[in-house]
Automatic annotation (TrEMBL):
It is found in: Cytoplasm. Monomer. ATP binds at residue 247. A motif ('HIGH' region) lies at residues 16-26. Belongs to the class-I aminoacyl-tRNA synthetase family. Glutamate--tRNA ligase type 1 subfamily. InterPro entries: aa-tRNA-synth_I_cd-bd, aa-tRNA-synth_I_codon-bd_sub2, aa-tRNA-synth_I_CS, aa_tRNA-synth_I_cd-bd_sf, Glu-tRNA-ligase_bac/mito, Glu/Gln-tRNA-synth, Glu/Gln-tRNA-synth_Ib_cat-dom, GluQ/Sye. The gene is gltX. One of its GO terms (molecular function) is ATP binding. This is Glutamate--tRNA ligase. It is an enzyme of class 6 (ligase). Its main location: cytoplasm. One of its GO terms (biological process) is glutamyl-tRNA aminoacylation. CDD domains: GluRS_core (cd00808). A motif ('KMSKS' region) lies at residues 244-248.
Length: 471
């Protein structure tokens, strides 16, 4: 058993099977690999495990790449197709033959079934033991054969896992697995090892549903005399109730979170914390995560999805986001969710108002709701509460305001003086005046501050909306 030199440059990979969308668990696995590599100046590679020709589709590959791209997980080089490497996999199977760590097995399916049936009848282990394991090549028939790995029959295989600890698998529980089928197609187990070796992968970070595979894969590494990667098998994600994650817990696909309008930075922060901890840090940037991420911080218990926490972190990331970056992410959200794009004029106003819009919005739909005063056009439709606040008295006040607003210098101080003055003149508190103003400007009684809205949309538009509402 050999390992990569401790100072070898880090290479990680994400190896999805393209049979559907990018699952939230897959997204987290990719993220952990990305963080680990990026924090160490290493490489993060992508391999599409498309050997199952029946279940793999180009649409699924495209969906996975879209999901990774949205999450901001850039990979090095071109994605590698596992299927395209099948000749190389077969070549390695033959090298194993030449090294004597694999053998040709001529047993037919019927013979194997009969072996199992007999073993079961005797009540012994039903693992197939090929009669060809130690056969003299001179006795080989001219018939189709599979290549089987000559797995050690006794002793144990130890996976030194960075998350699970020392995992011991008794070799007698593993059979001589087939590495190359009789139709010359490689098995999945062989393909993964050959690819990881050829790609120079030093760290395999993946779901713990692959832990048993690691034992078999380690045998292949040993059979080829290749360096074994560092293993880190991470617990799967569970639902808020602690049960295995399923559709009834809510969204499972990464792209669904994009469509719900969560910011990618918040999603990365949340997924990083899902099963990994750095002291009690909750809110952090990806730059911090890259510096901090390590395998020691990965927990052994399955992490539970917590939508409240996700929303909370997303709100913090929106609030902390740079205005221009938020605007472009908002535009991407609109496109991804099939909504009309912002016009240039709206984008300009959005940027102007972003500092107040981004405050206390947990998702882009919430931010858009706050930005309603920017995206609406006259005449502004109003909800019931807004309509109600525009009673005759309020309309009268709005009307009386327009001459003063026409002469205002359009600074916050000036506007404040005018509006508080008007409230005092009419013997009402500012709060009473704010409701009809919000109704006039945004068509809602809940909106960003009246001053923010007036300053963003400007003098002419403000007066026009007030006149509309007063009419
Ligand atoms: N293709 C496997 C999966 O999607 C991952 C295999 C691996 O990471 O080694 O579960």
């Amino acid at each position: 058993m050999t390992a990569h030199p401790a100072d070898a440059p880090v290479v990680t990979r994400f190896a999805p099977s393209p049979t559907g969308y990018l699952h939230i668990g897959g997204g987290r696995t990719a993220l952990f690999n990305w963080l680990y590599a990026r924090g160490r100046g290493g490489k993060f590679l992508l391999r599409i495990e498309d050997t199952d020709r029946e279940r793999s589709t180009p649409e699924a590959t495209a969906a996975i790449l879209r999901g990774l791209t949205w999450l901001g997980l850039d990979w090095d080089g071109e994605p590698i197709s596992q299927f395209a490497r099948r000749d190389r996999h077969a070549e390695v199977a033959h090298q194993m033959l030449a090294r004597g760590t694999a053998y040709k097995c001529f047993s037919t399916k019927e013979e194997i079934d009969a072996f199992r049936a007999e073993a079961e009848a005797r009540g012994t282990y039903a693992l197939f033991q090929s009669p060809w394991r130690d056969a003299d090549p001179a006795t080989h028939p001219d018939a189709p054969f599979a290549i089987r790995m000559k797995a050690p029959r006794d002793g144990e295989t130890v996976i030194d896992d960075q998350v699970q600890g020392r995992v011991v698998i008794k070799n007698e529980t593993l059979d001589d697995m087939i590495v190359l089928r009789s139709d010359a197609t490689p098995t999945y187990m062989l393909a993964v090892v050959v690819d990881d070796h050829d790609m120079g992968v030093t760290h395999v970070i993946r779901g713990d549903d692959h832990l048993v595979n690691a034992a078999r894969q380690q045998m292949i590494y040993d059979a080829m005399g290749w360096a074994i990667p560092v293993w880190a098998h991470i617990p799967l994600i569970h639902g808020p109730d602690g049960k295995k994650l399923s559709k009834r817990h809510g969204a499972l696909g990464v792209e669904e979170y994009q469509a719900m309008g969560y910011p990618a930075a918040g999603m990365r922060n949340y997924l990083t914390r899902l099963g990994w901890a750095h002291g009690d840090a909750e809110f952090f940037t990806s730059e911090q995560a890259k510096q901090w991420f390590d395998l020691k911080g990965i927990g052994r218990a399955p992490a539970r999805l917590d939508f409240k926490k996700l929303e909370n972190l997303c709100g913090q990331h929106i609030a902390a986001g740079a205005d221009a970056a938020l605007l472009s992410e908002l535009q991407a959200y609109l496109a991804a969710s099939g909504q009309p794009a912002l016009t240039n004029a709206q984008s300009a106003l959005m940027l102007k108002g972003m500092s107040s819009l981004k405050d206390r919005a947990k998702t882009f739909p919430e931010l858009l709701e706050k930005a309603r005063y920017i995206t609406v056009s006259r005449p502004i439709s109003r909800d019931e509460a807004a309509e109600k606040s525009l009673d005759p008295v309020s309309r009268g006040i709005l009307k009386s305001l327009t001459p003063q607003l026409r002469n205002a210098s359009w600074t916050k101080d000036d506007l404040e003086a005018i509006l508080t003055g008007a409230a005092a003149e009419n013997g009402i508190g500012f709060g009473k005046l704010a409701a009809p103003l919000r109704a006039a400007l945004a068509g809602r009684t809940v909106s960003p501050s009246v001053y923010d809205m007036m300053l963003v949309i400007g003098q002419d538009e403000t007066i026009a909306r007030l006149e509309d509402a007063a009419a």
